[in-house]
Amino acid sequence: MSELTTAARPYARAVFEMAESTSSLGEWSEMLGFMGAVASNEEVSTLLASPKMAKQAGANAFIQLCDGKLNDQAKNLVNMLAENDRLTLLPEMSTIYEVLKDEAEGSVEALVTSAKALTETEEKSISDALKKRLGRDVKIKVSVDETLLGGAIIRAGDLVIDGTLKGRLNKMTSVMAN
């Protein structure tokens, strides 16, 4: 995964800089998100990875799959990525782009993985606490992982807070082992 991130970062940064200079951050966010979703599709990725698929034919097929959701600049991006055998980077490019966009807009995305579904009040409480701690607006995405036994793991940028029962048990086990 880190190889994909390393390869995708310069492309995502270039798209971000171009989008920022043309005040089209939101439009590019939508287009990259859509292209990333299309490129993540198992059938599409198999087709694009096929050595029998010519580069330009792959780009044209990809653009057709995106069916009118791309502007001319996005189509040029697809053609350039296809020429360099980099269409598979689109999902990672989209992720990196969103981080750059959030930083530019003064916000951060927090991923909250909890043992059970959170109430609106709990989500707001987490959001408010992170906003106070990070000094930025916080967008929360919540997922449930019942194997955590209780509590939650919060990831926001470089910050990771493990308040799970499972995490506490693992910490206690490692302390007792030493």
What does this structure look like?
The mean pLDDT is 88. It is built from 8 helices and 4 strands, in the order H-H-H-H-H-H-E-H-E-E-E-H. The protein has helices spanning 2-21, 25-40, 42-49, 55-65, 72-83, 90-104, 120-134, 165-177, and strands at 107-114, 137-144, 152-156, 159-162. It has 178 residues and is an alpha+beta fold. It folds into 2 domains: 2-102, N-terminal domain of the delta subunit of the F1F0-ATP synthase (Peroxidase, domain 1); 107-177, no CATH class. Strands 2-1-3-4 form a 4-stranded mixed beta sheet, with helices on both faces.
Give a summary of the structure in a few sentences.
By secondary structure, the protein is an alpha+beta fold. The chain has 8 helices and 4 strands.
Task: Note the topology.
Layout: H1 2-21, H2 25-40, H3 42-49, H4 55-65, H5 72-83, H6 90-104, E1 107-114, H7 120-134, E2 137-144, E3 152-156, E4 159-162, H8 165-177
Parallel strand pairs: 1-2
Antiparallel strand pairs: 1-3, 3-4
Helix pairs in contact: 1-6, 2-6, 4-5
Gyration radius over CA: 20 Å
Sketch the topology as an H/E string, one letter per element.
HHHHHHEHEEEH
Looking at the structure, the CATH topology of the largest domain is Peroxidase, domain 1
Shape: globular
* First-to-last CA distance: 33 Å
Contiguous runs where pLDDT drops below 50 for at least 5 residues = none
Mean pLDDT: 88
Query: How many structural units, i.e. domains?
Result: 2
Major beta-sheet overview: 4 strands, mixed
Helix content: 55-70%
Named at the architecture level, the CATH assignment of the largest domain is: Orthogonal Bundle
Q: Which strand-content bin applies to the residues?
A: 5-15%
State the fourth-level CATH superfamily of the largest domain.
Answer: N-terminal domain of the delta subunit of the F1F0-ATP synthase
Oligomer: single chain
Please report the number of helical segments. Answer: 8
Number of strands: 4
Spatial strand sequence of the major β-sheet = 2-1-3-4
CATH class bucket of the largest domain: Mainly Alpha
Report the structural category.
alpha+beta
